[in-house]
Design goal:
Elements: H1 2-29, H2 35-60, H3 68-86, H4 89-113, H5 118-139, E1 145-146, H6 154-162, E2 164-165, E3 168-169, H7 170-188, H8 190-200, H9 202-207, H10 212-238, E4 240-241, H11 250-260, H12 272-292, H13 299-321
Antiparallel strand pairs: 1-4, 2-3
Helix pairs in contact: 1-12, 2-7, 2-10, 2-11, 2-12, 3-4, 3-5, 3-10, 4-5, 4-10, 6-10, 7-8, 8-10, 11-12
Length: about 325
């Protein structure tokens, strides 16, 4: 029995971590806890969680993407301007996906084809993307990117972003659907096996016939697509983007959700399923801080401590396996 528990803990400790944080939240929140507060965990996790799934694929290959928050903002600003011209929700979605994929492809090309370090490449594009989004907004004389409320499709877009099905937010349903697809892809397809092989041993994967360059580029493109989808969800929910604050620290928060979800930063180990629980754990931390009435400035302090604990847990597991 102890061996089974050990195996479960090794493979699914992110569920235990989530349950501990969730129980702590219920105790602290007390009588204020209701079905509405619980379902809002899914809603408030949807946008970051969608980005974190793409980030998780990159981390599985042993790389990183620090530009997701900035590409999220740049794609959002351009997508809103495009929507204000075409007044089409479908074309808005396509625009956000194409922009996200293009930004991801640029990162992937430099990392995969030109062998540049992912940390440096995505650090550079993080600065570039947010800078461009702020420059464009300021030259236009705007304070933020906003959807034109006079458009005929404005209400339908807003209703989607703030609607629900069987009391569950539509945004959360989209996020969970993407997660299920990614779980299937990584667990049951040859492409998924190539991702794990690349993260475990890049040279070995190359010798085994894996096209390392193509795989790396494709993973960044997929991450870009999840960023684009998250952009669309954000526009539908809030109908605006502020380049100075929107997506702030998303690159760090998405990595934190991935690590709390049990994916190894060295690559090749972990489950996409864990990212769902990792993101919700991260969301619950915000709610616990609010329920305790703590100063909001301490928010990232608490998150940083929990992130260090998650990394420490991974190190302990690695040593026990070795």
């Amino acid at each position: 029995m102890s061996e089974k528990l050990k195996k479960f803990w090794s493979g699914y400790n992110f569920i235990v971590v989530f349950l501990i944080i969730f129980i702590a939240y219920i105790i602290i929140n007390g009588k204020a806890t209701s079905w509405t507060t619980i379902k809002n965990i899914f809603l408030h996790s949807a946008i970051l969680g969608t980005i974190a799934i793409g980030q998780g694929l990159i981390v599985l290959t042993g790389d990183i993407d620090l530009s997701v928050g900035s590409s999220f903002v740049l794609a959002g600003g351009f997508a809103i301007m495009f929507f204000n011209k075409v007044n089409s929700i479908f074309l808005l979605l396509i625009c956000a996906l194409v922009l996200g994929a293009a930004f991801g492809f640029l990162n992937g090309l430099m990392v995969g084809k030109f062998k540049m370090p992912s940390f440096i490449v995505t650090l550079a594009t993080m600065l570039i993307y947010r800078s461009i989004s702020q420059y464009v907004m300021n030259t236009m004389g705007w304070t933020r990117y906003s959807v034109d409320a006079q458009l005929s499709r404005y209400r339908a877009l807003f209703m989607f972003g703030n609607g629900s099905f069987l009391t569950i937010s539509l945004l959360a349903i989209v996020w969970l659907a993407v997660a299920i697809f990614m779980i299937y892809m990584t667990n049951s397809t040859k492409y998924g096996k190539r991702i794990y092989a690349l993260g475990s041993n890049a040279k070995g994967a190359l010798l085994a016939g894996v096209n390392v360059v193509r795989t790396k580029i494709s993973v960044y493109v997929i991450c870009g697509l999840t960023v684009g989808l998250a952009t669309f969800l954000k526009i539908a929910k809030d109908t605006s983007f502020d380049p100075a604050t929107s997506g702030k620290n998303y690159e760090l928060y998405s990595i934190a959700a991935v690590v709390i979800g049990g994916i190894s930063m060295s690559g090749g180990k972990g489950k996409i399923l864990g990212i769902i629980f990792g993101t919700m754990s991260f969301t619950l931390i915000d709610k616990i801080i609010t329920a305790l009435g703590m100063n909001a400035l301490l928010n990232d302090t608490v998150k940083g401590v929990i992130l260090l604990a998650a990394v420490g847990l991974q190190m302990i597991q690695k040593r026990s396996r070795d």
